[in-house]
Amino acid sequence: MNRSPIGVIGLIGLLGALALAIVTAAGVRAQVPQKYTNLQVLPKDTSPAQLVAMMKSFAQGLGVRCEHCHVGEGNDLSKFDFAADTKPAKATARKMIRIASTLNAEVSAIVPPAADAPTALRVTCFTCHRGALKPLTAPGGGGGSTP
After folding, report:
1. What is the distance between the alpha carbons of residues 60 and 65, in angstroms, rounded to a whole number?
2. Which candidate among 8, 14, 55, 110 keeps its CA 20 to 30 Å from the CA of 43?
3. For 73, which DSSP code?
């Protein structure tokens, strides 16, 4: 079988990227506590993979990193105190999670879920924050009301 050098190089690159992704994911999983000691809003049976996905969505939705809500600095999550309630942003995040959960329950009762994403949340951090720490406001005059 005659393979082109570009195809082989591409395959090697793909395998290298896959190996890096696996090592990186394993490193993050190794830093996530296997037992949670201070979950107040999130379900107690949240798996480490679910928790990481949620935290990533919060960080992306607000354009922040872990240290915005959690005590610690840098990329070594094993040095973070995730259970600490020291930072006011963590209390705010809990309130916002409750609000988003309520809104999602109410929206689901009014508007049927999308056929292609029946379990997708309608209201997330990104809905209002759009990647910014402070929620972004809509331009004036677009509220749907008449003067």
Report:
1. 8
2. 110
3. -
SS3 71: strand
Nearest to 61 by CA among 119, 100, 103, 27: 100
- Give the contacts of 64 (CB within 8 A, at least 6 positions apart): 58, 133
The residue ranges of every structural domain in the chain are: 1-31, 36-129
How large is the average pLDDT for residues 90-108? Answer: 92
Q: Are the C-beta atoms of 66 and 89 separated by less than 8 Å?
A: no
pTM tops 0.70: no
pLDDT tens-digit series, residues 13-23: 445 454 444 44
The answer to whether 94 and 41 have CB atoms below 8 angstroms apart is yes
